[in-house]
Design brief:
single chain; alpha+beta; Cytochrome Bc1 Complex, Chain A, domain 1; 4 domains; 39% helix; disordered C terminus; Peptidase_M16_C; metal ion binding; Pept_M16_N; signal; Peptidase M16
Length: 959
Amino acid sequence: MRFMPAAPAAITLAVLTALGGLHPAVAAPAAAGTSAVSTVGGTLNVKLEKVKLPNGFEVILVEDHRLPLVAFNLWVHAGPRNEAKGQTGFAHLFEHLMFAGTRHIPRGQADKIIDAAGGTDSNGSTDFDRTNYFFTLPSNQLELGLWLKSDMLGYMIDEVDSVALANQQDVVRNERRQSVENRPYGIVEEALYQALFPEGHPYRATVIGSHADIQSIKLDDVKAFARSYYRPNNATLVLAGDFDPAQARRLVEKYFGPLKAGDPVPPVNVAQPQLTEEKRIEVTDRVELSRLDIAWHTPAVFRPGDAELDIASHVLGGGKSSRLYKTLVYDKQLAQSVQVQQYSLSLGSVFSIEVVARPGKSLDEIQKIVDDAVAELATNPPTPEEMARARAAIETATLSRLEKVQALADQINYYNQQAGDPNYIGKDLARYQAITPAQVRDVVAQQLRKNARVVVRATPGEQKLAPEVPTPPAPTKAAQGERESMNPDVAWRRTPPKGGKAKAPVLPEGRRLTLANGLTLIHIPNPGLPLVSATLVVRAGQTANPADRPGLSSFTAGMLQQGTQTRTAQQIADEAAALGAAISSGAGRDEARIEASSLKRNFPQTLALMADVALHPAFDAGEIARMQNQRLAALQQQREQPPAVAAIVANRVVYGEDHPLAKASLGDEAAIKATDAAALRQFWSTHYRPDQAALVVAGDISADELKALAERLFGGWARPATAAATVNTAAPKPAAARVVLVDKPGAPQTALSVVAPGPKAGTPDAEDIKVMNAAMGGLFTSRINTQLREVKGYTYGIYSAYTMNRDSGLFGIRGSVRTDVTGPALTDMFKEIDGMRAKPMGAEELNRVRNAQLLALPGLFDTNRVVASSYASEWAVGMPADSITALPRKFAAVTANSAYKATKTYVDPAALIVVAVGDKAKVLPQLEALGRKPLEIRDPQGVPVGVTAPSMPASAATP
């Protein structure tokens, strides 16, 4: 997976027809707005066509007109399962190389073309059994997308040379450092798979591979892998979205039909390992909390036993209603978290239980409870209620995956490869309905035996890594004879096809009304699928925290699900699970929110549960004590994560000591211990009031249905007679520009947060700022990421963003770089900033980055949850009702001069504060060489080293 920036939050952000050729009868396009997903005879179904070209290439057409978008989802049926010995990580490295250019698309241009066309979700990923490549484009760019995908598959090998290979080896090794070595428990998961699978098994090394193997890959290896696996007879493309199937078939034949088939791909026949005794592994890692991992070999995907174990995973660890959560996290408070999974794969699956212990708690005690729970399930079947909850969760999750056209396309590809039937969805859900509790019990007894498992116990300590593999100097020039071709060149491929007539971007419109008690109601209809999402947002975020109670807003929000006047915490969890509903609560900078999603048929009960949680919290003393322990452990976990530490320290420096946003959202240890029922209830009664709240609902629900539900469930929420409390809106008083280093001995990377105050929400030039930032550091193709990743290979990804709050704002550039190039990476970063300030963007760059904002808008609002959350965010910061629907007009108005003015106004390199979290011994000399002053050392809380942190006021020191 290539690391990509997250979308802004507020824009924030069957009938299966097997065909032997491309000449079936033409079906009339579906009516506008219709979905390919339907229910036929009570069975979920996706209307699709599967076509196979003479060269073996498969295309699956899913006509879905909910949005003017087309998802392109290409699966190459090769992954680590196809790697040769000594080449771990090869399939994933090849995924990266697929973006390095083709015969007709120069290196780096494919991503820019996608940006300019308004593409979203552009990326690739590698799993054990496959590699996929995907993006979503506006529907008028169907031909462009097929041109891009066909050239990647057929002509990528023409352009890969030693320069491109060396660069992506650097990038992938940075990804390994970031996702394995510098991430808590990354090496623990690797140790688990190395214990489960013997030498030579393709799943042994996990997907990322080792430094030694990644660095050892030669150009000849890349060519051989392409010849074997990257051929049309080993790939499937799913097109899902708003297109004419007849036109799509013609274009698929044009672009993919001429590609030459390769030799038949030999089947992978690897026996699943058989463990006959328990393996126990002890691992030390740079973590704060110990962790227990237990894993078993289990039946392959869609084989007998696979679905039974999926249900067992829900019973044992599927959320707050599960057995292990109730015992370990809730009742005994031994664990911080529990995760249980049946990871279904083609060569044999893995069933795993992962438990993170609370500080000071015994892994022996935790393991005994886990063992007892598994033994109990192997003896006595799940209850009818547990079976119903598991099935509800699976049904909701399955349908939710079909909401987004790209996820729909990927699911179809998954079924096509793993089940041999792209429209397997109805059969997939049916197998869960057919399973009996006794079958779950019997499969657990057969598969989850003590003598057939691996147990890994991770404890805090020294991280032991393989010997360092040097990064050799990268070649600057390809040697002669490095390139070869698999397909003949044709002149017409050299020109990108022009798009059809573009449809004007139309965004989901939220209609506002106000209930008698002052509650704002925002309705965004979306009848495409029987799903509904709701967000109740309250202006009770971090800025409302009392000075002596940092973290109180998020503590209060977290407590809402821990019991009401009529429901206990466990009753809330059980009821949500029975509905197949997802309910969460939390607090941000300006607001607190409760979010819920469910099937349409269960939405009234889901909203009733949300209303009870919001309006009638119990703030029980026992639950407060549980939450205190959980939050204290979470504070320790933050210290494990260098990017989180960098963000916390940066906020403290940039906002100044007295600003509420200077503190971590969790607060600190003293404030957590000091929080009691009185403080929580006072905060809730002061800030949770209907005239300071909005209920935002998006999905398959009419305005009349919603209003009736809202009146019934929220109409009795009394509006206080007193005026709403004011919050701390003072402008931040940041420290002057400086360099701050937080020591993390032995860290293989340096986590960077380069920050400064920024504009607040509602600034009239917000769209100029966003377009400017897209060019500078916001996009994958931005200047900063291109230079530091694609040119220098210093990082897996580094991005800039503006966070615009109600009364303040923040600019930040964030990412992790290889330890030994921390200084050069910062030097290059500041050069790119200086370049942005030197002159306005040229027409080509401006059009590309502006289109990446403007034309991508429909793709950024493609699920109910995102739409509801985005409207909630806009309301929370005081934006007008049309702030989202006005975005196309505002982005279209951005010019090179207006974007340049935003650069000069809002990007001042001299004012930037650099926070670096890394190995002081290696990083400090590099930071000193930069010459930026002052340079200071701080601890992970942001306190200057040698300075005692201020104590809590006496009034807040005790509960």
